[in-house]
Structure formats: C-alpha cells, structure tokens
Automatic annotation (TrEMBL):
Binding note for cofactor: Binds 1 Mg(2+) ion per monomer.
MF terms (GO), sorted A to Z: dTDP-4-dehydrorhamnose reductase activity
InterPro entries: dTDP_dehydrorham_reduct (IPR005913), NAD(P)-bd_dom_sf (IPR036291), RmlD-like-bd (IPR029903)
Domain RmlD-like substrate binding, residue spans: 1-287
BP GO terms, sorted: dTDP-rhamnose biosynthetic process
Organism: Parvularcula mediterranea
Annotated protein name in UniProt: dTDP-4-dehydrorhamnose reductase
Domain of life, per lineage: Bacteria
Enzyme class: oxidoreductase
UniProt xrefs under PANTHER family: DTDP-4-DEHYDRORHAMNOSE REDUCTASE (PTHR10491), METHIONINE ADENOSYLTRANSFERASE 2 SUBUNIT BETA (PTHR10491:SF4)
Cofactor(s) listed in the protein's UniProt record: Mg(2+)
Role according to the record: Catalyzes the reduction of dTDP-6-deoxy-L-lyxo-4-hexulose to yield dTDP-L-rhamnose.
Keywords attached to this entry: NADP, Oxidoreductase
Pathway: Carbohydrate biosynthesis; dTDP-L-rhamnose biosynthesis
Amino acid sequence: MKILVAGRSGQVARSLAEAAEGRDDVKLVCLGRPDLDIADRASVDAALAREKPDVLINAAAYTAVDQAEQDREAAYAGNETGPRHLAEASAAQGIPIIHISTDYVFNGEGERPYVESDPTDPLGVYGASKLAGEMAVADANPEHLILRTAWVYGAYGKNFLKTMLRVADGRDELSVVADQSGAPTSSHDIAEALLKLAPKMKDGAAFGTYHMAASGEGVWADFTQAIFEASAEAGGPTASVTRIPSSDYPTPAKRPTYSVLNSSALEEAFGVRLPDWREPVPGIVRRVLQETD
Ligand SMILES: NC(=O)C1=CN([C@@H]2O[C@H](COP(=O)(O)OP(=O)(O)OC[C@H]3O[C@@H](n4cnc5c(N)ncnc54)[C@H](OP(=O)(O)O)[C@@H]3O)[C@@H](O)[C@H]2O)C=CC1
Ligand SMILES: Cc1cn([C@H]2C[C@H](O)[C@@H](COP(=O)(O)OP(=O)(O)O[C@H]3O[C@@H](C)C(=O)[C@@H](O)[C@H]3O)O2)c(=O)[nH]c1=O
C-alpha cells in the first residue's frame, strides 16, 4: 500500500521513513516544506493528486509549546488550517486520514488516565490549536483516525531526551519538574503503530479519536533519571536530578499537571498497544549518543 506522510523532517515523519525502509508491503512518501506546505490548500491538493496514496498520515504540526503563546497565527496555521486542508482534500478523493494530536488538549486536572470521551480544556495556544485541528479533521473527513499521543522523543529532531543529554554534558546537577505526570512516548514506537494501523483504514473500520501513548506513567524528573541511568551505562553524560515543583520552572505556557492517557480503546479496536514508557529509553539513549543528527 502507498502512504503519503505530510511532514518530512519531524520526529514522527523521520521515524516513519525509517520504519518503512526495506518493507516491500509499504511504499511511503514523506513530503515537507517547500514541496508540501499543509497551510497552503493548493499545495495539499497537488500533492494528493500527484501521489494518489491509499492512506494519508499527518505528521506535520507546529510544536513549539511556549513560542505558540506569542505566535498564535503560526500555531493555528500548522495545527488547525493545515489539518483541515489535508482532511478536506483527502475526503474529496476518498482517502482515509490519520492525524496525530496531543495530551495537551486536556487541562491536567484529572486524577485517572484520560479516556477519549473526557472533556477537553487546553491550557495554552498549542493545545487549543491542536484541539481545533482535531475538530477540523473530524468534520471534514469521516474516514479519520485522530491519535492523541504524548511527550514524544526519539533519535530524530528536537526533544526532551536530547536536551537532557546535551545539558548534562558539562553540568553536575539539573533541576527538573516532578509534579507533571505523563508518559514519554517513543517516536519509533508511534511509527511502528502507524504502519500497523494504516492497512486497517478500510470501509467499516472503527474510525474516530483514540489515545495512543506509552503505557505507565512518570514525571519529567523520572524520565530524566531514566535517561541518565541509561546514559551512564552507555558511558555517556549524566547528572544528578533535583526534583522541583513547576512553580520553580516558570514557562510562558502552562503545562497540564496530569496528562496520562488511557490507550486501551485503541488496543480493543485495532490490537495496537505501545510498550511501557521505560522500555525504549536505553536503546534511544544509545542511538543518540552514537549518532550526530
Ligand atoms: N513532540 C511532542 O512531544 C509531541 C507531539 N505530538 C504531535 O505529534 C505530531 C508529530 O510531532 P513531532 O514529530 O514531534 O513534531 P516535530 O516538531 O518534530 O515536527 C513537526 C514537523 O512539521 C512540519 N511542519 C510544520 N508546519 C508545516 C507546514 N505548514 N507544512 C508542512 N510541514 C510543516 C515541520 O517542518 P519544518 O521542519 O519545516 O518546520 C516539522 O518537520 C504532531 O501532530 C504533534 O502535535 C503529540 C504529543 C507530543
Ligand atoms: C529543559 C527543562 C524542562 N523542564 C520542564 C519544563 C516543562 O514543564 C517540562 C517539559 O519540557 P519541554 O518544554 O521540553 O516539553 P514540552 O514542550 O512541554 O513537551 C510537550 O510538547 C508538545 C509538542 C506535546 O504535544 C506534549 O505532549 C509534550 O511533549 O520539563 C525542567 O523542569 N527542567 C529542564 O531543564
């Protein structure tokens, strides 16, 4: 089957390209700017007409959470207008769409893992623009999967794991928030899951919105400690982690205190489940230490 991926240089897009490499059952084409600008409808129409995929995956987004607070227009262009264009254009050509969204659509006041039917209430512009994108996709193309994931990191692009390894190089101590809970999710596990889901996007599929994050939960400080344990084992940089409240790490955008996602509906509908968040950490740390991106 042929899959068109909107986005080329991001974490998930590059992980998808890697996961599809050498597979003869999947032809995957990743298009990013300037060849495909999802905020430009004509560019989207042209890419779909040219590529004629069986499934469209949207891995493009505006992901700068703090910058979004002052860059509202760009955030909505990437996260609402772009997804709407993709969904309208794919619907017009009878192509199902898989769109990726975020745990930041919730306000974080929950006390048990969020299910899909829980009310959304984003705290910042990034989350609000992603929620607007979810609505646009659901309205425009009935054959959609909207997958909310969380705390994405991997070997490619910019992410928290890479930041921690970089900052630890030359520092003995790092202060990291210990009162925001979630599940760090590997972009490589997301890519493998997307390749399992894409062939299931057929007539009668259980289209809709699902959570798709790693199992288990932790706080950013736990994630940092897991990164440094793995790094120490691999001979990489490490630092001691001071656990701090969010109030000691002020940021322009407020993050949800609790954004753990219950991903069991996806498993029930499609048989896809991501591993515990701790599992992929050592392998990705080793890759990052070995590779220059
Ligand atoms: N990162 C995370 O922690 C999380 C991400 N998500 C969601 O997962 C998805 C993938 O995220 P991730 O891979 O981390 O994102 P990245 O920030 O790594 O990559 C996003 C990509 O989108 C591209 N892009 C932005 N605007 C456009 C546009 N108008 N046209 C074409 N391409 C565009 C960027 O291109 P360029 O390089 O040109 O700027 C970039 O390559 C997104 O929907 C995101 O919201 C969900 C939860 C957590
Ligand atoms: C770098 C750093 C961050 N932090 C805190 C800030 C913040 O509260 C938390 C997370 O840091 P970041 O700002 O890197 O992560 P953030 O950009 O909030 O990550 C989010 O990105 C978007 C795209 C999503 O969709 C979310 O699921 C989530 O992954 O860690 C520290 O406590 N110490 C540090 O040294």
